[in-house]
Amino acid sequence: MAGGSFGPAGVAKERAQQYKGRLTSYVIIACTVAAVGGSIFGYDIGISGGVTSMDTFLEKFFPTVFVKKSQAHESNYCKYDNQGLAAFTSSLYLAGLVASLMASPVTRKFGRRTSIICGGLSFLTGATLNAAAMNMAMLLLGRIMLGVGIGFGNQAVPLYLSEIAPTHLRGGLNMMFQVATTFGIFIANMINFGTQKLNWGWRLSLGLAAAPALLMTVGGILLPETPNSLIEQGKKEKGREILEKLRGTKNVDAEFEDMIEASELSNLIKDPFRNILEKRNRPELVMAICMPMFQILTGINSILFYAPVLFQSMGFGGNASLYSSALTGAVLFSSTFISIATVDKLGRRALLISGGIQMITCQVIVAIILGLKFGNQQELSKGFSILVVVMICLFVLAFGWSWGPLGWTVPSEIFPLEIRSAGQSITVAVNLLFTFIIAQAFLALLCAFKFGIFLFFAGWITIMTIFVYFFLPETKGVPIEEMIFIWKKHWFWKKLVPTKGEGEIINSVELDENVTEP
């Protein structure tokens, strides 16, 4: 059935209370190794900003920017405004966007591990090209290969983690992807600090991306495939064997039955991308677009990409700017553990809303300080500089427990199996599209809006916080193959999800009322 309108959407009945098993060492090892895929994404985010502020790199590839940077009379906000420099950063994300769509059929037909391995090999190639770059063409080709690696990795790793993890711990274990991402950012900042004074420091910074890429490739080879993927491929006995190892018990009948039902429907769907456009999948499609879009429109990537540039623009010296960006990287890494500890207790909505409120407050305070105390040919006083760094760190802290990890976790856990690979591809593609747009436009926006750039992002955070309050149901504790039931119980989405009379198989028992009107 190629994207037909009728048929079951998910499993036929809720069996969550019958799920058995415990957190096994097998799960911990598999999730840890898989999550390394996030570190390649984080490493690139962290390394790009530092490298683009290194004089030796700018002098070789962007001499115009190097000259502008050294001109004292240049506007503080505009000294780095150069589309070529922005293209160096953002070309990777455009390539990743295309690659993430290519990864969907690979992930569905050949499994999550195959996409993870493809991503690792592509990133390894890109890191080698960047480290050896002799001209702009070689540099951009390397960035494109890095983008292909990120496209495949970001498409497959969150799915892998969601499918491997036990239901009651899925949020925390899925966030290991974000832990690896933030750890990659922190390590990149430390490496930039160590290499900034070396003439060839930028080559070392870019080339060391090969380390996480190698780990990701080897990890992909050694990892077990997810039971969901094996069953979808018709390997039911192997799928059950892996499921029993993951759960540490032979009593996995309920979870296995859910996977079988989801797989039977999935195999009827020949075109997942067409199927995801059906009305009954509208809630998932909206989340696949809005969650990653909002994650980027918090402005976090702009701060992480360009932290050294941003702090230098505010009048911090070269060393001080790298210190400050290293500090933000450390805060982001540590804050993710707050989310891991609380996401399966407090739920996704509470973290997203509280994080949004704190981010709005910090953005507005930074905008006021810069608007009143900072301008062309004017540097911040020491006291206000410290206050700006504190506010940015509090902003990063809030992002690290909310939109950072949950922008990946929520989309990866809501799709029924028949559209899961397509849905995750759309999530990654939208994320990388907006990453590309913001990365390409940020330096120009900083030049045009000046301190208003922080108000621009604060406005978007306000919108996304309202969106979560009204439209995102709580997914805490809901089995991944039973997500269809949360939309039926939501005050808005239940209007779009078909009922029994419209050709869907639904549970004949009373639905558990976890999600109601906000």
TrEMBL record:
One of its GO terms (cellular component) is membrane. The chain crosses the membrane at residues 23-43, 85-103, 140-161, 173-194, 200-223, 285-309, 321-343, 350-372, 384-404, 425-445, 451-472. Residues 30-476 form the Major facilitator superfamily (MFS) profile domain. Gene3D superfamilies: MFS general substrate transporter like domains. One of its GO terms (molecular function) is monosaccharide transmembrane transporter activity. It comes from the Eukaryota. It is a multi-pass membrane protein. The keyword Ribonucleoprotein does not apply. InterPro entries: MFS_dom, MFS_STP/MST-like_plant, MFS_sugar_transport-like, MFS_trans_sf, STP/PLT_plant, Sugar/inositol_transpt, Sugar_transporter_CS. Pfam families: Sugar_tr. Keywords: Membrane, Sugar transport, Symport, Transmembrane, Transmembrane helix, Transport. It is found in: Membrane. Belongs to the major facilitator superfamily. Sugar transporter (TC 2.A.1.1) family. NCBIfam families: SP (TIGR00879). This is Sugar transport protein 7. It comes from Quercus suber. The lineage of its organism: Eukaryota, Viridiplantae, Streptophyta, Embryophyta, Tracheophyta.
